[in-house]
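Batch manifest, entry 17 of 40.
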Amino acid sequence: MKHFFKILAIETIIIIMVGIFPLLAWGKAYWFEFICAYSISLVNAIVGYFLVISSFSDTHSDFYKKVYGGMLVRMAFVLGFTIFMISFEYVQSIPFFLSLMLFYTIHQWTEISGWLKELPLRKVQTKG
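Output type: structure tokens
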């Protein structure tokens, strides 16, 4: 689990280093959109990681219920948050949506690679 948070911290530093110059050059007006998109994507990845890791030792049906049910709730929350922020004009839709998709892709990659490193080290529950 420490490895996952270490990777997220390194990723955040890289995103800041790579993104600071374009943001300062032509994106100053959109800093709130970038921060909101990054935050919602980060929380989504952390919750998804914990759902998979914590339910891995459960029975297959409980594992799938937690993972897919959690995925449904997380996707509904991200969609609802996005619609809310855009509808009430807290954010500009195009910069927010594009940055959300970029950060979402990066964080999903990190979440899945974190599972792949963590899950082989765990024992699988078998019937017997």
